[in-house]
Amino acid sequence: MAILVMFRHGQSVWNLENKFTGWVDVDLTDKGKKEAKEAGEKLKGMHFDYAYSSDLKRAQETLKIALNEAGISHVPTTYDKALNERMYGDLQGLNKADTAKKFGDEQVHIWRRSYDIAPPNGESLKDTAARVIPYFEKEIAPKLKDDKNIVIAAHGNSLRALIMFLEKMTPDEILNFEIKTGVPREYQLDKNLKVIKVKNL
After folding, report:
1. CA distances from residue 93 to 20, 38, 176, 180, 181 in whole angstroms, order as listed
2. Is residue 150 within a helix (H) or strand (E), and if so which, with residue range?
3. 74: annotated active-site residue
4. Is 58 annotated as contributing to ligand binding?
5. CATH number assigned to the domain comprising residue 43
6. What are the pLDDT digits (tens) for 156-183?
7. Overall pTM > 0.85
8. Which of 88, 89, 165, 182 is 20 to 30 Å from the Cα of 116, by its Cα?
9. Is Isomerase included in the keywords of this UniProt record (predicted)?
10. Which range marks the domain in which residue 59 is found?
11. SS3 7
12. At residue 38, what are phi and psi to the nearest 5 degrees?
C-alpha cells in the first residue's frame, strides 16, 4: 500500500491581494509560510520516497518549508510545469472584484467555475487536467504502484484535476470542492491506485 499526500501552497501575495495568479511567479506571504510550517507539523513521523512540486516558487517554497518542519530531508524532489496552476491568460494579475465589474459577475463565474470554458488566452480546468493527469500517470503513478510514498505541493486547480482523477469525481463535484491553502490531503492507495482511504490531515 502506498501513501500519497498532496497540499496546496500557502497563501501567496496575490491570494492576499485577491488577484488571478495563474503562472505568474509570486512569493508566499508570512501567513503562507506559517501555513507551510503547519502542514509540515502534520507530516511529522511520515516517510516519503519522492517529492514533487510545480515550476512555481510558491509551491516549491511551501514544500521546502513543510519538509524541513517535518524533519524530512534528502527526499529526491522533482519540479515540473505540468503541475503548475491553471493558466488564467488575460485575467492574470487582475483583481477578481475589478474583473467582475469589467466583465460582469456571471461571465467571471463561468470562467472560474465551469469545467471546460477557459478565460481569454487561458486554460479551463479540463485543459489543466489534460496536462496534469498524463504527467501523473507517466511519472508518479508507477512509483505509487511500486509502494513508494509520495508528497506533492501544487495549486488549487492542478490538485483539483488530480483529486477528480483519483476520487472519480464528476466535473460538477470537483468544481464545488474547495482546497484550502496548506492543508495536506492523505491517500492510501492499492496497487491499482484505487483509494482505500482518504482524509485531510
Report:
1. 5, 28, 24, 21, 19
2. strand 150-154
3. no
4. yes
5. 3.40.50.1240
6. 999 999 999 999 999 989 988 989 999 9
7. yes
8. 182
9. yes
10. 2-15+31-84+126-200
11. strand
12. -65, -35
Residue type at position 200: N
Q: Is 17 known to be catalytic?
A: no
Number of domains in the chain: 1
CB 39 within 8 A of CB 7: yes
- The verdict on residue 177 lying in a domain is yes
Orientation of helix 156-167 relative to helix 125-135, angle to 10° = 70
* 96 in a known ligand binding site: yes
Query: Which residue of the set 9, 35, 123, 186 is catalytic?
Result: 9
In order of 69, 75, 115, 184, the CA distances from 9 in angstroms are 15, 18, 22, 10
What pLDDT digit, counting tens, does each position of 33-75 carry?
999 999 999 999 999 999 999 999 999 999 999 999 999 978 9
Instruction: Give me the catalytic one of 35, 85, 123, 186.
Output: 85
Q: Cell match 517554497: residue?
A: 61
